[in-house]
């Protein structure tokens, strides 16, 4: 893999090596943009209603997905810059934004969502592998995927370089091959359906991009330049996520009444071989989730050895994948977006326009900044009022709040964009208020 001096240090007490160039990072983010979840979860950008019936046509879903992905990619690029500038991982950066103690709350949320994503990935890998060959029981594939994931986390920077050298080319070849063959199939009318729920579909695509925002700095802290970190994350991820989702939507259209989005891939000549590339490559998604979970835990316990953490986490998500099902994927994405989109708005506003310009206090003694927390909450509430999601109980609560406030969201309201902007504006206001109080003192 890589020499010890070119690898991630075991604890947060050691400085992060700046060894990842633009192409290393581009390959990493591009591979994360191509996911089996982009195929199996393609229906989420069609804005399905409470009965699971899509409200968007395939064509409208493609446009919504592109819009959401481009916006989400720019947000991901913004989240990448602070890590490259400071050399700190994502959750440690939040010490400067919220204060050391207050950063523990989003850290715990991030750990929870990453464990969920890691578990989802192992489930998807096992299910897809079973479509390739069902001669091995599902638990066998889960165990194999968990072992591969854990091994990659031991040498994270070496794994990033491995993706660039070997995996990216194979993924590109597989994508081109499936595009050529699937578009030659007799596709149904892709315009059959409406455009109602367009922004909901865009928010679903944006939420997938945003799911990487809380971990972006875990990797870009090793970037050589800020510009390279922004460009690789924003462009590399967005381009391949668009390609993967369009392919997933085409496969969904071809799947027809079966509803199994993997069937069209496997039905073409050599489909098993090229789809196997996607299945094997999916381990980089679970790797990124497990590694970033360990780094997030280090914000709570800076001297914890990441190797011990990743081995334990790999075992945990493997166990969860053995006993859980993928469940409500769309609802999970909605909740992720509602938490981390406004948090990014606060971070971007304060880092680029507020106190962050002069440098954040990233120490364990960083003072609490309740104004930033209040700005985050404002953005979170705005998101829920516009789009409370589909998780039963949770969505019902926010629907009741809307009725109490006599608030009716309009069709032009994007939960992601408005919560991002409101949280950012509130953060700037809170920062100026804190500065004025400091000057008076």
Spell out the CATH superfamily. Answer: Hydantoin permease
Query: What is the overall pLDDT average?
Result: 89
According to CATH, the fold-level topology is Hydantoin permease
The CATH architecture can be named as: Orthogonal Bundle
How much strand?
under 5%
Helix content: 55-70%
Please count the beta strands (DSSP E, at least 2 residues each): 0
The major β-sheet equals: none
The total tally of domains equals 1
Described by the principal axes of the CA atoms, the overall outline is globular
Task: Find the structural class using helix and strand composition.
Answer: mainly alpha
Poorly predicted parts: none
Tell me the radius of gyration.
21 Å
Distance between the termini: 55 Å
Essential attributes:
single chain, 441 residues, mainly alpha, Hydantoin permease, 18 helices
Question: Can you walk me through this structure?
Answer:
The protein is mostly helical and 441 residues long. It contains 18 helices and no strands. Helices cover 70% and strands 0% of the residues. It has one domain (4-440): Hydantoin permease, CATH 1.10.4160.10. It is globular. The model has no long low-confidence stretch (mean pLDDT 89).
């Amino acid at each position: 893999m890589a020499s010890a001096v070119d690898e991630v240090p075991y604890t947060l007490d050691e400085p992060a090596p700046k060894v990842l160039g633009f192409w290393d990072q581009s390959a990493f983010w591009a591979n994360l943009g191509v996911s089996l979840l982009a195929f199996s979860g393609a229906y989420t950008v069609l804005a399905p209603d409470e009965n699971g019936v899509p409200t968007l046509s395939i064509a409208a879903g493609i446009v919504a997905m592109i819009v959401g992905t481009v916006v989400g990619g720019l947000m991901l690029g913004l989240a990448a810059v602070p890590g490259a500038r400071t050399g700190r991982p994502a959750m440690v950066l939040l010490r400067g934004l919220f204060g050391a103690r207050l950063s523990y709350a989003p850290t715990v949320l991030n750990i929870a969502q990453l464990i969920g994503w890691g578990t989802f990935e192992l489930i998807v890998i096992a299910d897809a592998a079973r479509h390739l060959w069902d001669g091995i029981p599902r638990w066998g594939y889960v165990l194999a995927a968990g072992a591969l994931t854990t091994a990659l986390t031991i040498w994270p920077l070496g794994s990033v370089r491995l993706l660039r050298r070997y995996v990216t080319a194979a993924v590109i070849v597989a994508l081109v091959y499936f595009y050529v063959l699937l578009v030659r199939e007799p596709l149904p009318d892709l315009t059959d359906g409406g455009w109602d729920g367009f922004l909901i579909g865009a928010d679903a695509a944006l939420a997938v991009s945003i799911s990487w925002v809380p971990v972006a700095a875990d990797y870009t802290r090793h970037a050589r330049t800020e510009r390279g970190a922004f460009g690789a994350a924003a462009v590399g991820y967005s381009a391949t996520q668009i390609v993967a989702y369009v392919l997933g939507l085409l496969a969904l259209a071809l799947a027809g009444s079966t509803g199994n989005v993997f069937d069209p891939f496997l039905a073409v000549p050599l489909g098993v071989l090229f789809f196997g590339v996607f299945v094997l490559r999916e381990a980089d998604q679970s790797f990124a989730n497990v590694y970033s979970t360990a780094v997030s835990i280090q914000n709570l316990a800076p001297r914890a050895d990441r190797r011990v953490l990743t081995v334990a986490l790999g075992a945990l998500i493997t166990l969860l994948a053995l006993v859980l099902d993928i469940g409500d994927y769309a609802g999970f994405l909605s909740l992720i977006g509602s938490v981390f989109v406004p948090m990014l708005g606060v971070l971007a506003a304060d880092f680029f326009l507020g106190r962050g310009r002069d440098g954040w206090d990233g120490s364990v003694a960083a003072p609490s900044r309740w104004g930033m927390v209040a700005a985050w909450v404002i953005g979170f509430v705005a998101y829920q009022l516009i789009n409370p999601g589909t998780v039963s109980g949770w969505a019902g609560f926010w629907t009741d709040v809307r009725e109490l406030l006599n608030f009716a969201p309009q069709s032009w309201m994007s939960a992601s964009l408005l919560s991002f902007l409101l949280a950012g504006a509130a953060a700037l206001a809170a920062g100026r208020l804190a500065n004025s109080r400091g000057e008076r003192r």
